[in-house]
Amino acid sequence: MNMKIKKIFNNNVALTEDLNQTEMVVMGKGLSFQKKVGDEIDTEKIEKTFITPSESFADKLSELFDDIPYDIMALSKDIIDMANRELHTELNDSLYLSLSDHIHFAVTRSKNGLPIKNALMWEVQKFYKAEHRVARKALDMIKVRTGVSLPEDEAASIALHLFNARQDSSGMEETMAMTNIVSSVTSIVKYHYGIAFEEESMNYSRFITHLRYFAYRMLRGELNNDHNDALYKQVKMQYPKAYDCAKKVQAYLNNQYNVEMTKDELAYFMIHIHRVSSREKS
What we know:
GO molecular function: RNA binding
Organism: Scopulibacillus darangshiensis
CATH superfamily of the largest domain: PRD domain
Helix content: 55-70%
Protein name: BglG family transcriptional antiterminator
CATH topology of the largest domain: PTS-regulatory domain, PRD
Pfam families: CAT_RBD, PRD
Order of helices and strands: EEEEHHHHHHHHHHH
Number of strands: 4
Keywords: Repeat
């Protein structure tokens, strides 16, 4: 493949054009070292290509290479390649940006003794088992390549990045349906309690995140089938008003989408509804 350099971002990444005038951002260690615009790229050095990228994407990729060591970018590529195989999918290219940035930040924090907890860790383990299993493998790869053992919370964070990269490829119809579900359920909770949400709060952010993931799984027929009676009864007893609200959500979903929520799903809804309605500070 004949590829000429149109723009050099740094020693490891360049914007190229082939004989069909197809633009690609290519990455590989040292592939543009001592090169200039118009030179041909040694294709054997190419490790990853981003075909017909937007100008903003190319700029973000360039900025990332300026801020993040190449070894981390290469590690992210290997993790994504592994995830594509394990999840039998093709993850969105935007994941190379977000995952590299996250891993670099997480490794740096860990070295400085500043780990960050993931408030959704248990839910990710429970509802996104495939992504979490892959993320656990990613932690092993990170340990081997960087010498840093990241905490289990980071497996949940990486799993969410993987999930979002799958979600990015959703069709417009599905995206609109998800948006409608989030909006409608949020309104049910808002009017049930007669409150205005503190949209900058952590509890609101957690609630919307849970709701988006629920809507995504619901539309794809991937809702959790477990019926954890013990958890359900405990939460129902502890948060009776949240239970009443959750039942309204359940009725809405049943009427509009013919979906029956399991007791597990209802229990987690109650927990998030209670948190967001009580406006607890986190």
